[in-house]
# Entry
Amino acid sequence: MDATIKKQLEIQACKIRMGIIEGVYNAKSGHPGGSLSIADTLTYLYFAKMNVDPKNPDMEDRDRLVLSKGHTAPALYSTLANKGFFALDELKSLRHIGALLQGHPCIHIPGVDMSSGSLGQGISAACGMALSGKISNAPYKVYAILGDGEIEEGQVWEAAMFAAHKELDNLVAIVDNNGLQIDGAIEDVCSPYPIKEKFEAFGWHVIETDAHDFDKLEAAFDEAEKIAKQPVVIIQKSVKGKGVSFMENQVSWHGSAPNTEQYNQAMEELNNTLKALEG
Amino acid sequence: MSEVVKKATRESYGEALAELADKYENLYVFDADLAAATKTGIFKKKYPERFFDCGIAEANMMGVAAGMAATGKIPFASTFAMFAAGRAYEIVRNTIGYPHLNVKIGATHAGISVGEDGATHQCNEDIALMRTIPGMTIINPADDVEAKAAVEAAILHEGPVYMRFGRLAAPVFNNKETYKFELGKGIKLTDGDDIAIIATGLMVSEALTAAEELKKDGINARVINIHTIKPIDKEIILKAAEDTGLLLTVEEHSVIGGLGSAVCDVVSESLPTRVIKIGVNDEFGHSGPAVDLLKEFGLSSENIVKTAKEALGK
# Structure
């Protein structure tokens, strides 16, 4: 990847992380850990990969993204706001009464392609969009982001079987493998491992990558595009809470909001990261 | 009613899909390994490229249909009522209902008349479940003519629709030439001010037979067919309550949460009126021939007549 573009993406990702913290802090609730772990992926997709137009969010042949791990809505909202789908200020009223931004993704929000949040369901909807694209010979791709804990839901594997059987090669699933779910480490709660072998057995093309390295993300999504007759899953090794030191790899930050002191510290860290990148 | 033609509404459903496919090119059909039973197989045979079997995975099927609807197509998702409304309830609520997507759910084998398969497959609670989902339209057609008209009405309606079809062959009493389906509007089938029998689905023809019997004893029963359970026709129910002062609801569904409950909701708020509910009481069904089960569970013209007479003190 071109060094300038890479730096621009890193700057954008940092701004998106700041929006996540802003949103969750003002909401006094939400899920910062898993939002921060997918911030780079969403940055890459919306700022370097997907064919979307913030001025025309319902564009017929746009690429679609279903945030199957819908509780990490702050990451999607911050990305969409930074992309220009709605004002950045909306992030401050996330989860408030009368606000545009609901606790989990809602299809009526500009740029949100599917309501989601009840785990395991988004991937099925993504399959439906991909199938529809196939039927109509539409040029769009469908991306679905799943949590590694989420794939404990049985419906994910119903969808996995379906996508492979229907040869949905316009579908790319991303499993955000940050290793943590609410009750602890995924291998301790009810292990979904081995993830790679499971998807391979279900007939998917599997790519493993690093969720926080734009060169590797680019390589992964480029490879995904070359695969025919098979759906692709990108298993991305990620760090829950990535970018905010005290949130990294801490399961306690799965679903809790920072207090004012923690908010200030998080924003200071991200500001420093931003300055270093821009400097 | 001699020489009455009988036909299962699931058959009408499958035929309607095939008949309407050319007119509505955006129509696609999903099934979950039950195409032979839900009769979507009729559509599949004619339009294989517009039919998708999801295998025995109803939850995924509902989600896939939602995703397709989000791209502007009109998907019909078909399986037994037990799995459509029961197993897949939460997917229907969250991924179809909440985003208010244009998915049509074709649920067959509803009610006790599933027969020999027994309690696990006799879904007497689907109307109750679907009624709780905001924005969900629920249609329970009474015969072949109404079922076919309902399918087209569902296509023309923007938003999620739950359609309930039966396995058992039901008398065709509507006239194809003159019948008109209006979503959300009940149909007054007979005049009468002594009692109003408000029926839905398979029970409408039983209600008509009961009204004929009652007439012999000088009781004039008004029979109302409620094919759209949600949104329900408040006007026709309140008028019946006002004119008769006694409502008898009849449905092949649990007395909890179905048509009877919906009618009670209407009258209790605006015009408190006595409502007697005939339906499956708070119990599971069991195996047996459908016709015998219907009689055993009181879902018969005989029981309607008996209940009406008791209520009227005659």
